[in-house]
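Task 17 of the worksheet. Students: predict the tertiary structure of the chain below and write it out as C-alpha cells. Keep your answer in the requested format; marks are given for formatting as well as content.
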Amino acid sequence: MNSDTPLQSDGGSCGVFTLFFDDCVTLRAPTTLMEENMGALRLQASTGLLCGVLLPPPVTDEESNS
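Model answer:
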C-alpha cells in the first residue's frame, strides 16, 4: 500500500472513506481524507444523495495552503 493512502482507524467511517476515496481516485484528486472531516463528508454525501447532485471531494486545509 502507498504510504500516502489515508487510513480509517475508527469503527464507523469505512463507508464514508470508501465513497470519498473512490471519488478522489476517479477525479485524480489528492486523497487527503482525514477522520476529523468525517462529519462534513457525511453531510456532503447525504446532501448529494438527497439532491441528486454529485459534488467533488472537498479541498482540505493542506491542499489550499499548497
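Marker's comment: The mean pLDDT is 78. Residues 14-58 form one domain.
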